C-alpha cells in the first residue's frame, strides 16, 4: 500500500514539474474550443401538439354495414410512415424548400436532414391519441413552416388517406363487377343454349337419370296394376251380363239351348287338347281361341235376338222385364268399364314407351346431366361472387359517406406551432464545461507523458525502483534565496493563469446565460 501511495505521489510530482506544458496546452484547447462553441449558431425548436379522436359514436352504429378498419391501427401506421420519402417531399414542398434545392445532391441532403430532425411521438396516457411534432433549426420561421407542413401531411394522411383508399377500392370493385357481369351473362347464355339444344332430355326438377328411370318404372307398374284391376272389373261385368242374359233367355225354369253352343263346346274341347300338346302362344292355339271368341260373340247376338222375340211375343211377364232392366244397367256399366280399360291401356302403352325411350338413352342422359350440373355450378359460383362484389361495393360507398361526414377520425390541433423567441440550443454551458474539462485533462496528460519520457529521481523510492540498488539515505537541497523567490513568483504566475482561465470560463457562462449575440 505504501508503495502504491509513493508511486502516485511520484507521478504527481512529475506532473507538477512539467506543469507549464499542461498550462499551455489547457489554454490552447480551451481558447480554441470556446471560440468554436461561441460561434455555433443558435437552434430554435418548434413544436405542435395534436389530438386524434378515434372513439366516435358513428362507428358502432355502422358496424357490419361498412368496411371495418381499426382507426387506432390506422393512426399508428400513418405515424410510422410519416417520415417516408413521399411524405418528406410533400413537407419540403410545403415548407418552401424548392428555392433552396439546386440539385439532386442538395435535395437528398435536405430530405435526410428533415428525416433525422423531425420528431413525432405519442404523448399522454394510453389511448389518448395525443401526438407531438417537433423540429429544430437555426431559422425559427423555417422551423415553424416545417412543423406546420408535417401537421398538414399528417392530417391529410389521416382524413384523406381513407377516402383515397376507398376510392381505389371502389374503382377496383367496379372493374371486378363489370368483369363478373360479363361472365354471368356468358354463363346464362351457355346454360340457355344447352337447355334449348337438349330440350327433351332435361332432367325433371330435383331428379337425375336414375330417379327418372325409377319414376317411369313405378308409373308403368302402377298403370299395369290399374289396367289389371279394370280388366278384372270388366270381366266380372261380362260374367254378370252373361248370367243376366241366361236368366232372360230362360223359360219356365229351363235354359234355352242354341245350336251354336254345341259348336263352341266342341271347339273348347279341341282347345283343351291342343293346350296339352302346345303352349298358349302356338299359332293353332291362337287361331282356335279366335274362332271360339267369334262364335261366342255370334251366340250373344243370337241370344239377344231371341230375347227380343220373346219380349215382342209377351212371354216372360214382369220377371222378364226386371231381368231386362238389370241387363241394360250391366251393359252400360260394361261399356264404361271397357272405355276405362281402353284409356288405361293407352296410358300403360305411353308409360312403357317413355320407359323404353329412357332406357335407350342410358349412354346419353348421364353425360347431359353432368354437363348441365357443371353449367349450373359455374353459373351459381359466378352469380354468388357477383352478388358478393355488389354487396362489398355498397359497403365501400357507405364507408365513403361516413368518411365524408368526418366522423370516423377527427383531427384537432391542440397547441399550434409558434415562432420561439429564445433559442433552445446549443447547450453552451455544457459544451464550454466539456471544453474546460478536456483542456485540463489534456494538459495533465501531456505533463504526465513528458515526465515519463524524461524522468527524474525525486525520492529514494524512485531511485531504488529504477536502479535496483540499496539507498541508505538522502540529502535535501538547500536553494539560494534568489532561486526560492523566483520559484514563488512562478507559482504565483501559474496560479494566476489558472485563475484567469477559470474567470474566462465564468465570464463566458455569464454571457451565455444573460444572452449571447
Which tags fit this structure?
517 residues, mainly alpha, Alpha-Beta Plaits, four-stranded antiparallel sheet, rod-shaped
The N- to C-terminal Cα distance equals 54 Å
Tertiary shape: rod-shaped
Structural class: mainly alpha
* Known CATH architecture of the largest domain: 2-Layer Sandwich
Describe the structure.
- By secondary structure, the protein is mainly alpha-helical.
- It folds into three domains: 2-40 and 426-514, no CATH class; 44-178 and 392-415, Alpha-Beta Plaits (2-Layer Sandwich), CATH 3.30.70.1130; 209-366.
- The protein has helices at 2-17, 19-39, 58-61, 71-80, 85-94, 104-117, 140-197, 209-249, 259-277, 283-313, 317-360, 365-404, 428-453, 460-467, 481-514, and strands spanning 44-53, 119-123, 130-137, 410-415.
- A four-stranded antiparallel sheet has the order 2-3-1-4.
- Helix 2 packs parallel to helix 15, helix 8 (209-249) packs across helix 10 and helix 13 (428-453) packs antiparallel against helix 15.
- The chain is rod-shaped and about 195 Å long.
- The two termini are 54 Å apart.
Topology:
Blueprint: H1 2-17, H2 19-39, E1 44-53, H3 58-61, H4 71-80, H5 85-94, H6 104-117, E2 119-123, E3 130-137, H7 140-197, H8 209-249, H9 259-277, H10 283-313, H11 317-360, H12 365-404, E4 410-415, H13 428-453, H14 460-467, H15 481-514
Antiparallel strand pairs: 1-3, 1-4, 2-3
In brief, what are we looking at here?
The chain is mostly helical. It is built from 15 helices and four strands. Helix 2 (19-39) packs antiparallel against helix 13.
